[in-house]
TrEMBL record:
The chain crosses the membrane at residues 744-764. InterPro entries: Leu-rich_rpt, Leu-rich_rpt_typical-subtyp, LRR_dom_sf, TIR_dom, Toll_tir_struct_dom_sf. GO terms for biological process: antibacterial humoral response; inflammatory response; innate immune response; toll-like receptor signaling pathway. This is Toll-like receptor 21. It is a single-pass type I membrane protein.
Amino acid sequence: MAALVYRLLCFGLVLAAVAAYTFKNCIEEKNSNRRSFKCNQRREPNISVIMDDLPQHIVNLSILGNPIRYIPDKAFARFKDLHLLRLDNNRLMAIEGSAFGELHQLRSLNLSFNNISELRPSLFASLHNLTFLSLRANRLKRLPGGIFSAMPNLSTLMLQQNLLANFTEMVDSVSNLSDLLQLNLCLNKFTSLHHNRIPFPRSLSKLYLCRNNLSALGCERSFLSDVKILDLSYNSRLAAEAFLGVDLARTNYLNLHSTAVNVMTLLDISNIHAGHVDFTGTGVKNNSMLLALCNLLTRKVKSLNALRLGSNGIRELPNDTLSHCPRIMTSLDLSGNHMKSVKNKMLNCLGFLGENRYFKKLVIEHNHLSNLYSCKQVRRPFWEFEELSFRYNRILMVSDYAFNHTPNVVTLNLNINIIAFLGHKALKGLHRLKTLRLDNNLLTDLYSDTFEDLSALQTLNLRNNRISVIFNWTFLRLRDLTTLDLGGNKIVRIHSAGFRGLGRLSKLYLDGNKLKQIDMSLHAVFWHTLTVLDLEENFIRFSTLNASSPFVNLSRLSDLKLGGQRPYGLTHLPHKLFRGLRNLRSLYLTNNQISYFAADAFDDLTYLRFLTLDKCCDVNIRLPPGVFKNLRNLTKLTVENAGIQNFSGKVFGNLTRLQTLQLTHNGMQSLDVDVLNSLPSLRYLDMRHLPLSCTCLNSRLQNWTVHNDRVQVVYVYNLPCQEGDKSNFYNFETNVCYIDLGKYLFFSTSAAVALLAAFPLLYVKLYWKIKYGYYAFRSWFGEQWRKFREEEENCAYDAFVSYNSNDEDWVMLQLLPNLEGKGSSLKLCLHHRDFEPGRDIVDNIVAAVYSSRKTICVVSRNFLQSEWCSLEIQLASYRLFDEHRDVLLLVFLEPVSERQISSYHRMRKVMLKKTYLQWPASDCVDPEQARELFWSQLRRAVKAGSKLETEENDETRAAPDIDDLGDSDTQTLIADGNFYMD
């Protein structure tokens, strides 16, 4: 019982200090206040086990990627406040009919990517407030009647990638969903839309039937009349005649990609607006078909919002081909064809558009264009164009004045080509261009006049090219540029004026280059504007001898990345490396081999919020004390796989606002709970894959991680012991770590009871034998003790005199001459004469008492009021009573009352047990003879041995020799009260 009380007391102290909590198979999402949890990739087949320790008031729950095959009835009954439930990407095969019972507040349910082949009719009966349901990628062949009837608020139903074939059954199941907006039935087995005159809900506006086996629609005329977006793509057996008699007048978008539908016939027999048909992949593959389509569209409509002609196999467009089409208002998409560059000015410079030059966006992606030729001679520019996209082509060269015909373009996408040559004047005239993407090409050089006309440019992406040098004045005219991406190139040098002109640059990406050093002092133009700087995966080194920080003037920088320096990573973070970065919020030092941290490396980062040191350091690095001392605003610190061995308060103790700490894959065998206690804002701790020892070293940590409720410690129940046994960290045995008071109390009490029981018997039977043995032992021990003490009698002084300074005249004029003078061999120890100068007074007193055979206390009223005299008599009486040494002599200079002595209990005890001397009064009968007897007795007492004898011997030795005195003398001494005996 005592042991249990002790353990509970220790545990209570830990609880009072800080709080921590953990869940067996789930992680609380950060800052969710116990309302959102993720239980992903746990390898646990029992869903009840996964959720058994979750609080009941959760709102969002995700259980993904687990080998769960079955969900029992009322599995989620505890979570009545649940709004979102994700059960996708498991292996669900069976769900009981009341599995979701009591989830009346549920809004979203995702059961996608499982193996569900059958739904119980009552499965969704309790989900009255559900608005989103996904059953995508299962094995459903049928839907029970009324399966969705209890969900009147359902607006999105995802049923794609199943085996559904009965469309009537499908329609019947959703017919009463008055709020249904979107229904996805792609990738099923429907062959037609035939139904038993049961209409779709009028609210349904988005219907996806792509990739089925539709050969006919077979539906009532009004069946699809309210659908705004209809996707029938990739139904290769569907013919245009299937739309005969179907009302599509309100359809805003019809996707027929990769069908057998003849769009000409469709437009003739259907009432769909011609401008709402997506002609992508409809087989309009040559000029004659395109002309016929344009003429038909012109007869049907006066204008088109957008014309989509992608994936039709169009190889070329003769001049003015599209001039026969209705006026295009917004965009033209020619992606996914086989168009090639032809050195023909009209063709190359969009001459095929003819009079169709008023739309804003042209997309010619995924074609075979190889060159963009000069358009300098174009007389009628396309003034309305705002966006051009040539992505995913084979463009090798962009000639001068290639965009002279589109002077008002705002966005130009030339990325993901093989552009090796960009003419000096290729971008000439693009004064309104704001976004230019040239990434993922083969550019090697940039010239000073390449971007000279792009004065309005805000974003320039040159990532993943082969640029090696940034020459002076390259970006001189880009005064409005805010984002420059040069990552993934081969830059080894940036000239001193290479960034001149970038007065508003905010984000600069230089990662993945070959820079060996970075001297931002050369680029003063964006000192006060740069907020993001990415220098990852370069060859940068910082020496401990660096005189100044390369970032010292970047006063507004908030995001700095220095991870992955090659070939071996950063090795040093020297003194004041980050000086001047007082506004930095995020710092990335991942994938390096840092072996040296200056203790003040992070001192200037007072506003840092996020620091990642993942894989940052050399093996077994020890962080210097105080390295994080100024990071008072840090909220997230990740040091995963950083090689850190120590977790001390001197390193981590100042992170008072830290909320998230990730320590996985390090070498710490223990974590100091006191350090964790010093992090008052900590809410999330990940210490997985640490070699934590299951020993007493971590007994407090075990209690801290398992039983408290403020800091979430991730997956503690899965942390193994490192000693090779099968136990886990959370439940390893800690009894041996505490003193088992119960055991000791039991044995001591048992022994006492046994002795008390045996004592009467021993007393009766063995009384005289025990008494004889006691006296025999005492006699032997006394003799041995006397010999031992005699060997010790080799003191420096015969007596130490303890007196008050007011009695110094008596000591110097009376005591000293009578004990040391007149041929005496006694040696006294006096304060003013024998104490060691410069030594502490207490040490001098102790040394004097223990280096003298006796201590003479000259007692007076002044003596009793002195603190030092009190200390001296305490020390001497300690030797008298506790060491059993006769060392104390009391000499009273004047009468002292019992009341005055009562507070000095040791002195009173001496007076009761031993003879003391009193200085003869001046009015006694014969003062001279009395004083001579006083000095004789005092000298005799000083010379006597220090071993206590029997009381009789003490009295004989201390009392005056009565036989040597006359009767009158004896009477006089006793009458004057010079000697008091017990």
